[in-house]
Amino acid sequence: MALTTLLAACDSSQPPAQAAAPAAAATAPQAAAPAVAAGPSSTCPAPTFDGFLKQFTDDPAVQKRYIADPLESDTVDANAEPEPAPVKKMLSKAEVTFPVIPDSARQGKDGLVMKKTAEGDTGYAVELAKPDTDYQMTFHFRSADGCWQLVRTEDDSL
């Protein structure tokens, strides 16, 4: 432990008080952390959901790898009578059109606003909307296989 403290103290990327803190914390008793069923792993494009979302948004190859098969797709049939009706489909990967979500540059160009909301302990809903229009998409991600996976899309646009 003395070697760890000495090495941490020599770390010039942190102030000395912060460099020694990890070594001191390692000796303190730790409360058991709750087990996470499928947290991010080394094969995931990023260790946090925010980082993953950036990679997912900007790289169609990441989108193709991290979508559920089948993918639940909820839309609205605006032409249904007597009023618009919800339509639920299960799409195989072969039926999904990529990119599933526009990249950051396209979002900025089109005036789209992204909002992320936690769903329980293992998921996120990411809403993509264009203010003052009926354009609204929601993408539902769940923790899966050490990363996150798009499991459902909702297109509430009319």
TrEMBL record:
Keyword set includes Signal: yes
Write out the entry's keywords from A to Z.
Answer: Signal
The superkingdom listed in its UniProt entry is: Bacteria
Q: Which residues form the signal peptide?
A: 1-19
Q: What is this protein called?
A: Lipoprotein
